[in-house]
Design a protein that fits this description.
It is a single chain. The chain is α/β, with parallel strands linked by helices and about 600 residues long. The chain is built from 19 helices and 27 strands. Strand 16 and strand 17 (about 280) form a beta hairpin. Helix 7 packs parallel to helix 13 (about 405-425), helix 15 (about 445-450) packs parallel to helix 19 and helix 16 (about 455-465) packs across helix 19 (about 575-595). The longest helix has 21 residues, at about 405-425. It is globular.
């Protein structure tokens, strides 16, 4: 969840580290800190955002050509100066930054206290660096071996970087269950939680694997397994472009990413659909075409927004591929002893490819012999590396914590998978597939048209920005859109919002409806249109304030709704790709009008890499 960055080379480390922390702040912004090696390790840290750290050190000479930094999302210990990273050993010789959780820290801490260790924070991270110090004291081993032994003793997930006063020409980095990438330069190396702080300096990177330790000097890099076996690193070239990490003239990353969706959806489809031929080509799945032809059940595992995308996928795959689909919260999946066999296909969806609960669900599915696929946005992430096959979304980096373009990209990939399964199973006629793919090819242009509703949505946002509650309703594939709309609103505006199937309203939520309650309907002209109109009438009869997303040219809903947002008419299969856009804009403008930080909402971080 936290962001880590490190540098060793010939340049001043501080500007590189602090800029990297700004790039990684979407991973956590409770506190921040840096450590610089200038004859000895000097640590500066502060609760708050990276900018608070910058102000704290603005009058201090920040020297050193080796350094590391950390931006925190609190797990063990409340956000405070004392709990901020980096943390030091008792003798102050060793310093560490850490992303993850050491699950057995309490037992280790108790043993170390009995040996005379004193702790200055409430974190599990400080326990790890004291453990390494203790191993050195008791065994007289070098730092490399002490780190390796310590990591064999801890249980949990980690990405760590360690500096030592006694070894000023070395950084030690390691990972297990938390991401870490090493940038390779000439006479310099860069370390980070993801590639965003690195791309400015080098395009050559190595993604550390689980249970690997990297020993990094200015001129050399040695990677070993936790069992002390030398590993041959695979250097790959980044596709990431620096301009993708800037706001590009927009006020916020979230707004930029909302407006990037015509491009991101187009990029997601590029080279994968051939409308005139009625053909879908997913190179990552080709090897498993026969498996898909004969599959009986698909299980989709995901969390948050990705889970909502999975629900859309369920509708699409069952409708067109005619395969039974179950959508599971990854965070609950492995705790109820699910029935899985080698006959099943498990699809994991994760923007970051590092979501801890989703990875744990995949581990369970793999143990039981299921085939596992991944849908991910980040090249080189953990999920693409542990799955049998998969599809990248190619949405580009998403910096805003509340997911927008990643959701529509995931829905686009699931749409392609549904059509691909239909293609290999023969459940769609060629003419129908040509028709659907032709319309899908036009969706980016229709998203552009939908974005033109922005000014009208601003007006609606001004009317309802002070509402304490909000209800989102939809039927069919519009139900997950309602869930996603409610999630976006609560995430960034802190308004209590819930999404429901429209027909379920009268089984409870209708009791909440009064003149102060805004109710948002996805009421486009599709198979359940007449049913949704009945639900609208029920809300209207109770005085609820109605906001309706309707198909362009609709007149019937306009007579009943207080506010109407028109989106282009499209096939029901593609409704989620259009109806989601106004809900994203509505959440954005309401949050902005309420004075909320839309890019960094409280208590949230982008990549949930801890359980």
């Amino acid at each position: 969840m936290c962001g880590i960055v490190g540098y060793i080379g010939f340049r001043d480390a501080y500007p590189i580290v602090i800029k990297g922390l700004h790039r990684l702040e979407y991973r956590g912004y409770d506190s921040a800190g840096v450590a610089l090696l200038d004859q000895e390790v000097k640590v500066y840290k502060k609760a708050g955002k990276v900018s608070d750290l910058e102000n704290f050190v603005k009058d201090i000479p920040m020297k050193g050509t080796a350094g590391m930094g950390h931006t925190r999302w609190a797990t063990h210990g409340a956000p405070s100066d004392r709990n901020s990273h980096p943390h030091s050993s008792g003798n102050r010789e060793l310093t560490i930054i850490h992303n993850g959780i050491i699950e057995n820290y309490a037992t280790i801490k108790e043993a170390l206290i009995e040996k005379g260790h004193e702790f200055k924070s409430d974190t599990d991270t400080e326990v790890l660096i004291h453990l390494i110090e203790n191993i050195q004291d008791e065994t007289q081993l070098g730092l490399q071996e002490a780190v390796r032994i310590a990591l064999n003793q801890v249980i949990g997930a980690y990405a760590i970087v360690i500096m030592s006063n006694n070894e000023p020409d070395q950084l030690i980095a390691a990972r297990k269950g938390s991401p870490m990438v090493i940038g390779v330069g000439k006479g310099e190396y860069f370390i980070a939680s993801d590639a965003t702080p690195i791309v400015e300096y080098t395009r050559n990177v190595i993604y550390l694997n689980d249970n690997e330790i990297a020993y990094i000097s200015r001129e050399n890099l040695l990677i070993k397994s936790i069992d002390n076996v030398v590993q041959i690193p695979y250097i790959q070239e980044l596709e990431l472009k620096l301009e993708m990490l800037e706001k590009g003239g927009f006020d916020h990353f979230m707004l930029k990413e909302i407006y990037e969706q015509p491009r991101s959806v187009r990029d997601c489809m590029r080279g994968r659909i051939y409308p005139q031929q009625g053909r879908v080509q997913l190179g990552g799945l080709t090897e498993y075409a026969e498996k898909l032809k004969n599959i009986d059940r698909i299980i989709i595992v995901a969390c948050g927004t990705s889970w909502h995308a999975g629900l859309v996928g369920e509708y699409l795959i069952e409708e067109y591929g005619r395969v039974s689909v179950e959508v599971e919260y990854a965070s609950e999946f492995r705790y109820r002893n699910p029935i899985i066999s080698e006959k099943d296909l498990v699809i994991a969806i994760s923007q970051s490819g590092e979501t801890a609960d989703t990875m744990a669900a995949l581990d369970l599915a793999k143990e039981k012999g299921a085939t596992i696929f991944g849908i991910c946005n980040v090249v080189g992430a953990s999920i693409p590396r542990i799955t049998d096959a998969g599809v990248y979304t190619h949405a580009g980096p998403e910096i805003g914590v509340a997911s927008t373009k990643a959701f529509t990209a995931q829905v686009t990939v699931l749409t392609l998978i549904a059509f691909y399964i239909a293609q290999v199973r023969g459940t769609l006629s060629q003419s129908k597939l040509i028709s659907l793919l032709t319309e899908l090819n036009e969706i980016p242009q229709l998203i552009e048209q939908t974005l033109l509703t922005n000014d009208k949505i601003k007006t609606i946002a001004a009317r309802f920005k002070d509402s304490p509650n909000c209800l989102f309703l939809g039927r069919g594939s519009a139900f997950p859109v309602a869930l996603e709309g409610a999630l976006k609103l609560k995430e960034i505006s802190y308004i209590h919002a819930e999404g429901y199937p429209a027909a379920e309203m009268k089984h409870g939520p209708i009791a909440l409806i009064d003149e102060a309650m805004p109710v948002i309907f996805i009421a486009t002209k599709h198979s359940s249109y007449e049913k949704v109109i009945s639900n609208i009438q029920e809300v209207k009869a109770r005085g609820g304030k109605l906001i309706a997303i309707v198909s362009e040219g609709d007149t019937e809903v306009k007579k009943m709704a207080d506010y109407v947002i028109e989106i282009p008419q499209t096939d029901e299969a593609f409704l989620p790709l259009l109806a989601t856009i106004p809900l994203q804009l509505l959440a954005y403008h309401i949050a902005l009008m309420r004075g909320c930080n839309v890019d960094q909402p409280r208590n949230l971080a982008k990549s949930v890499t801890v359980e």
